[in-house]
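The freezer alarm interrupted the setup, so I double-checked each line after restarting. Inputs confirmed:
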Amino acid sequence: MPKITPFHARVEPLNQTGIWKNWSGYLVCPNYQYSVVTEYYSIRNAAAILDTTPLFKYRIQGAQAEDLLGYVLARDTRKCNTGTAQYSVLCNAAGFVIQDCVVLHVNNQEYWLTTAEPSLRYFREWARQLNLTSVSIEDISSDYGIVAVQGPHSLNVISQLTSGAESLRFFEVLQTEIEMIPVTISRTGFTGDLGYEIWVPVQHALRLWDMLMSAGCGYNLTPIGTTALKMARVEAGLLLMGVDFHSARYAWVPEQTESPFELGWGWMLRTLADDDREFLGRNALRSELLSQSSRWKTVGLEVDWHDFERLHREAGVPTAKHEIYRESTMSIYRRGTIEWDYVGYASSFLFSPILQKPIALAKLPFDLATAGTEIDLEITILRRPVNVLARVASLPFFNPPRKTQIITGNRLQ
Amino acid sequence: MTKLVNTVRGEDFDAIVIGGGHNGLVNAGYLAKHGLKTVVLERRPIVGGAAITEELIPGFKFTTFSYAISLLRPDIVQDLNLVEHGMMVLPLIRTFQPGWNGDYLLLGPDVDENYHELARHSAADAEAYRDLSHLIKRVCFALKPLMDSIPPNSISELPADRAEMHQFEKYIGSLDLEVQAMLAKFANSSVADILDEYFETELVKAMLATSGIIGSRVGPRSQGSGLVWLYHKMGEYDGIFGEWGFHKGGNGEFTQVLARAVQAFGGVIRINTSVDRVLYQDGRAVGVRLTDGTEIRGDIVVSALDPRRTFTELVDPHDLPEELVQAIYKFQFHGTAAKVNFALQDIPRFPGLEHRQEIFMGFTNIGPSIDYLEQAFSDCQAGRFSSRPFLDCCVQSTIDPDMSPPGNHIMSCFVMYAPYHLANGDWDRERDNLGDTVQATLEEFFPGFGDSVLHREIVTPLDIERIVGLSEGDIFAGALSAPQMFLNRPAAGWNQYRTPISGYYQCGSGTHPGGCVIGGSGKLAAKQILHDRSLLLQPR
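Predicted 3D structure, all chains:
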């Protein structure tokens, strides 16, 4: 029996499709209504509310909390000041990605982390190996619910409950109260849009949900499921573990491992070449950087609409616009004289509602990874493999200014 | 021949587009993209033509005229980089058809859910709906290439034109027999006839029949309504509800996106600039003269206005071939529609579905039976607006919260029939009577509706003509009837965007593929212009 989240009593009657899925052992709704695109558009046009409780949550605190995180996370946690958050990554000693995570530095010497994979033992084990005694690591997964409010009107919704969110900049965190409920609000999310995530103690989860829903009434606040979220994250160029990359923890062969550079996360390691911070994977990553030995690059692909439509027309079938989101591997070939010259693969494929064309996240060798390069992407039309023209695009595909904009007054200007 | 008189000489351009409606903008976008120094001249203080959004009272955005996007070709979106300029079409996912005594039909994005909703009325109808939907999709798929190409010239004797005509006939002949038969039905039957063959429930028939009368002077039982129905179905071809949408901020925001695209390609847009005449010499266009006397020179002049204005007002019809002028005089304009747009305190309440705001996330059809629609039409035939009108309503704030202040709503109502030619009285005096009639009709289905009204905007067919410039208030810039489509839009032999004056072109909805917010006319005209120009530039 899957577990239920602390919001379940409210979420359950909103689920018009009756479809549920399993996310880390919790019952979650993939789509509340039959029009997934409508849910998706609430992220880009109005405000969306999403239960992300199934993430694993950890509290790491104490005088040596920073030492622990500074070692196990590849991105420099010392730069994550109190009241800010970081998108970060855990690597193994060989410099391969174990998982991505979000760190909230909620208080002096107190960090909260969300991860997709269980990590309690992992953190404890490293604390022991590093001989860090002044740090406590707690699994607080069952203590808190997390609700994300995302979209251009997300602040207008939250502002009705607390004025605290207005001053939050992108990736800042605030601990405050809403009607006596202690909440932690971060300006973060997985949609690539303006958005917030709110942590709430489980016993108050339903009351917070109700307050948000009534505050959102005039802004068409729409409950969204995981499918709409995943659509938005492809446009935002955000990678999903298990889809766009796999944890080195469970890799069978080296091909299943990825370094942060290969995933496009080199920006997390900007100071690697010239600082002396010791962290897990440092030597391997440094040598990868200096010798430029990354095996491939993560890029965006934009499918050429004219070619996509022509191929369908020739087959006598309508353009498959409704096959909107897919997580299966699709082969990529070099365009040229050699047929089916395999060079890489796409991992997430989406008919992007906002770009009005199919897009994908892909891995390509460096000589093909510059924006504008033409490649062939294998799709299936009438059960047959067909190559459609696609062009390499830089990530993210969609990045509205409001995502990071500094807000003055209670509305986005 | 218009004399070139001594007037102020404005800047020169390669191409001058008269009229900044959506087709004019699309046309200008393509021309500018291909390197022509292009200007759009718009008479009004805003571009958009019939696709505008106006904030008439603070916080409430009114889509004064057109109110939805259909059929807009994805290639235009890509070619003109519209996404970059803010294009966002939100899907309209519902059709709500209130009936009498609490009866209703509420269709949505899931075919199986729709089956059961229809089966509540008749299981046979629910099944027929699926079959018919698929057949219609096949017809639309077959016609799509025609929507996307310059139609052949049916009267030319030139071998190349004859070959194109032959190609076209061969294509139609090559279609699947079932598709051909259905196509013939659309062309020759009334929407009611076709529906009678498939359905037994009045409410189901009425819901579907409304697409057969939109904007046209036909009733559901008139021959010709089948074709109007097919035309509107083309907009839904990728799925029953897939392709109709609402542009964020209304259609006015869509035309603003187009304007930004034109400018990004280096095109120039001049508002408050009214064109008096197209200037031509020795059968070649040389520019335009504005009403203030300024002359703007350009070898390419494109009219985005309707055929009547293009051929009889912007140029002297005496300079054109007699048979073309006669065809244009006979070209029918059927203004039969009005708009009444409401700013509402609260969402309308349908008894039994009071708390379901999402029922309005699409089109709400008021017209519960074929007889109701036919009765509304008979008023039109008698030269008066319908005493119980058919309404196509859209509460757009349920789709886009930025259309109204939080908690309030904006509702666009397309009203039929409202004949341009009234037998008695005039539209300026009937304005409020029309508003009251529409409000009373809504009150019938949504008790308490009137109490919620904060403001209403009434747009008569005469307003459509006066403000937008569409002759006789015809929203399609010329009736969508078989003799006025494809080969004959706007006239046989002159359906390829050219005119008898070399360098003078037409790109409005009065050309193929026609009305609605499609952009096809603007795009295909640009294709023709660029083709002609590249021929000219080719060394001989």
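Quick read of the result. The radius of gyration of chain B is 23 Å.
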